Amino acid sequence: MGGCGSCAASGCGTSGARIAGLTRLGLRPGAWDAVVGLAGNPNTGKSTVFNRLTGLRQHTGNWPGKTIARAEGGFGYRGRRYRLIDLPGTYSLLSASPDEEVARDFILFGRPDVVVVVVDATALERNLNLALQVLQITDRVVVCLNLMDEARALGIDVDVDGLAEDLGVPVVACVAREGAGMVALLDAIHGVSVGEVACRPRRLGLSVPGLTEALDRLTAMVAGAFGDLPQARWVALRLLHRDRRITEAVRTGEIARLGAGDGAAIGAGP
Ligand SMILES: Nc1nc2c(ncn2[C@@H]2O[C@H](COP(=O)(O)OP(=O)(O)OP(=O)(O)O)[C@@H](O)[C@H]2O)c(=O)[nH]1
Ligand SMILES: [Mg+2]
Fold first, then answer.
1. Rounded to the nearest whole angstrom, what is the distance from the C-alpha of residue 30 to the centroid of ligand 1?
2. In sequence order, which ranges of 173-231 are alpha helices (DSSP H)?
3. Cβ(170) – ligand 1 distance below 6 Å
């Protein structure tokens, strides 16, 4: 395994062999052209991908107001500088553990340009739950179908093209631990980021009588109260579900801070 000659961060060296066209910028992305969030269920290889692309090997601080480790770094690819955020593992955007809230709030309110959902190819049914939730709220998603080596060892054959067609976003098969698929992943991130690759994310319809009207009305109220909130419709839907944390964040006005691009988690505890 070779070191990364272009890495600007100290401590780099075991994060993988050189990847064609990639400049690992380590801790100091400087000015960036796009922000990329790495989301996914726990233990799917998010940090392994993060390390491969940034050259970093350690967490780089905490999330604001939290004791939850935050890893953030940068890379350059095809003339653009990307800021990469390694999110805590989460099973669902509706989850309530502090780790999961950090991930959820970043995806919803951190205004990432691209969300990479890292999924475990050996457990697609469980992993696609989060992927489908992310597809509901953003147009710019890449699915990193990781642990393909383990899937193959188990005799699982994933139809990668069929999955991409069904989801409406690029799906890239990877073995992040070996660095396999990283160039294709970078191409997909770049393509989605600059608009060369158009996503048509699969969205689930809401066909409950009366719900659409109620949702429209409440969304308009939320948007009216918190002008720049990126996910007013999602917030309105959670209010209709009587989501305790979101209701509290709306009641106290805390939600506005997230809408301002802070991206930190709502609340410091239950
Ligand atoms: N076999 C195999 N193992 C992998 C692959 N990618 C990552 N791993 C291993 O899976 C384990 C978990 O990887 P991480 O990168 O820490 O996973 P994560 O998603 O960041 O985990 P959390 O942050 O805890 O949610 C590590 O032991 C990795 O070496 C892969 O493609 N194949
Ligand atoms: Mg991790």
1. 27
2. 182-194, 211-225
3. no
Contact present, 144 and 186 (Cβ < 8 Å):
no
CA dist 18 and 248 (Å) reads 47
Q: What is the pLDDT of residues 125-139, one digit of tens each?
A: 999 999 999 999 999
Pocket test for ligand 1, best of 1, 41, 43 (most atoms within 8 A of CB): 43
Mean pLDDT value of segment 233-258? 89
157-206 pLDDT, tens digit per residue, is 999 999 999 999 999 999 999 999 999 999 999 999 999 999 999 887 77
Ligand nearest to the CA of 51: 1
**Hey, whose CA ends up nearest to atom 29 of ligand 1?**
177
CA angle 125, 127, 128 (to 5 degrees): 70
Say if residues 260 and 228 touch (Cβ distance below 8 Å): yes
- Rounded CA gap, 72 and 84, in Å? 6
Assigned CATH topology for domain 22-194: Rossmann fold (3.40.50)
Ligand nearest to the CA of 90: 1
> Are the CB atoms for 38 and 73 separated by under 8 Å?
no
Handedness of CA 206, 118, 139, 70 (dihedral sign): positive
Pocket test for ligand 1, best of 116, 177, 178, 185 (most atoms within 8 A of CB): 177
Span from the CA of 7 to the centroid of ligand 1 (angstroms): 22
Residue 187's closest CA among 177, 174, 203?
Answer: 174
Instruction: Assess whether the C-beta atom of 154 lies below 6 angstroms from ligand 1.
Output: no
Specify the pTM: 0.86
Phi, psi of 172 (to 5 degrees): -120, 120
